[in-house]
Amino acid sequence: PGNCWAFKGHQGQVVIRLPARVYLTAITVQHITKDASPSGTIISAPKDIAVFVSLLGTSDGDLALGEVRAREEETLLGMFTYNVEKDPVQTFPLKNMLLPRAFSHVKILVKSNWGNPWYTCIYRVKVHGK
């Protein structure tokens, strides 16, 4: 407990570069259980999560312009709610059939948590695909 990726507030995002181009099929999010939490609560767990891919490749040398273009060309592959009352490891299917191709990056956007005003914690994210 406490050894997580924590970010300030209830919203945050991370872009994950995959080791190869992947046809994305699902995403798994993990948090600790209430029993494992020293406080007995897991209000820092993510709640509403969105998964995006970018239709444009960006080069490292043109990051600022690439970030602007990527925001304009992102495609949503799924929105889901991590439920703190269920198993701490939850897998959600993605809608890649809308874009039947492989991607090298995936963006995880946490839109809210379960009530912690100071920070949100994620213990593990797994990206599934072929």
What does this structure look like?
InterPro entries: Galactose-bd-like_sf, SUN1-5, SUN_dom. Keywords: Membrane, Transmembrane, Transmembrane helix. Residues 1-130 form the SUN domain. GO terms for molecular function: protein-membrane adaptor activity. The chain is mainly beta. The protein has a single domain, classed as Galactose-binding domain-like (Jelly Rolls). Helix content is 8%, strand content 46%. A 4-stranded antiparallel beta sheet has the order 2-7-4-5. The protein has a 3-stranded antiparallel beta sheet with strand order 6-3-9, with no helix packed on it. Strands 1-8 form a two-stranded antiparallel ribbon. The radius of gyration is 15 Å and the shape is elongated.
User: Count the strands?
Assistant: 9
Give the integer mean of the pLDDT values.
87
Compute the number of structural domains. 1
Helix fraction by DSSP (H/I, runs of at least 4)? under 10%
Largest sheet: 4 strands, antiparallel
- The CA-CA distance between the termini, in Å, is 32 Å
At the fold tier of CATH, the topology name is Jelly Rolls
How much of the polypeptide forms β-strand, as a percent range?
Answer: over 45%
Any idea what the radius of gyration is?
15 Å
Name of the CATH first level: Mainly Beta
